[in-house]
Amino acid sequence: MNPDIQLLQPYPFERLATLLDGVPAAAEKPISLSIGEPRHAAPAAALEAMVDTMRDMEIYPTTTGSFALREAIANWLGQRYQLKNAVSPDTQVIPVNGTREALFAVAQCLLDRKSNKTRVLMPNPFYQIYEGATYMAGLQPEFYNAAMTSDDGPDFSLISEDSWAAAQMIYVCNPGNPTGNTLGPSEWQYLLSLSNKHGFIIVSDECYSEIYRESAGAPIGLLQAAAEYGNDSFSNCLVFHSLSKRSNLPGIRSGLVAGDAALIKIFKNYRTYHGCSMAPPVQKASIVAWSDEQHVQQNRALYDEKYDAVLDILSPLLTMTKPNAGFYLWPQLPVDDETFTREMHAQQNVAVVPGSYLAKEINGINPGYKRTRLALVAELEQCVEAAQRITSYLESV
Ligand SMILES: Cc1ncc(COP(=O)(O)O)c(C=O)c1O
Hints:
The chain is of the alpha/beta class. The chain has 2 domains: 3-41 and 295-396, Aspartate Aminotransferase, domain 1, CATH 3.90.1150; 44-292, Aspartate Aminotransferase, domain 2 (3-Layer(aba) Sandwich), CATH 3.40.640.10. It is built from 14 helices and 12 strands. The strands form 3 sheets. Strands 2-8-7-6-5-3-4 form a 7-stranded mixed β-sheet, with helices on both faces. α2 runs antiparallel to α11. Bound molecules: pyridoxal-5'-phosphate.
């Protein structure tokens, strides 16, 4: 067995199942705010495109996908990020089967386990794939503090010069999960200048980029920031996007990686061996989804409505900010987060995730301790009902 397998930590949902094992749930109808699985309807036209092209299953898809798909992706990136230089569908884009597999695979492909640069920087709290990918690539994760409120991005100036110099790659989660914070222009420029100086790769996980509050505006992405910095060829920059949250299509496993043509070329070669091309009907559905913004606006409006309703109920009792983007709330709790999770299950039948399961303890501090992550993915009425049940519990402690 590959010994690095033993370094993989139990996934937060495995730990959650262990925490609740043998704890009977309250009799109320269950409501889940735990898994970040969108529940709004997917665009019908995308689903129809998939059904209409089922016979395309009779052919082998290529690693790079169809030109039409790469073109739809390049057009979307160009429009969304107001890029003056068009993204090349031939050299700067590759379709992937959701961002998760790609965020993992990119580390296996681009990191050099024999280099004296041994680190991969990643946020804390964090999406656990970054850590597992780093271990499996034979490097060491080093955590930096993600901002805990929606007002700021992470404070990159707290990362030491030695750490930047030892880094081959940095994972940035923008918008952040679970905090929903977004990087501003100065944070991007700072990061780009350090990448320029030290030569590390910036991997920007932007899978929540389209679930932003209309009042906060669309978050700046890495490609846009790189172009503004003068890095028009996106050297050492890769962005990861997905249809899972944007278009409520987590089941079709469709996303994209775009940026530095030299890195994309290596990644394409790796993926040819890895054998992970996208099914042709999924490619057709993806073209439809990337080419339409109306359903994305409607999706955002539904989340905005839920944030307003839930914050009205919970704000008097819990300290939290309305995040710029994403579909989570990340409140501070008056009790420890495992107790809160267990009691919400036992007394109210509401599933939540302990904040500490989504973060790492560094120097004795786990930034998720006494926090919970609430995914506002259920219907409005269910989110409101869950918020009322949280209130009932909090008033009893
Ligand atoms: C921060 C983050 N990145 C990536 C993903 C993976 O999304 P997908 O593989 O569906 O594109 C998720 C899923 O929840 C996530 O929260």
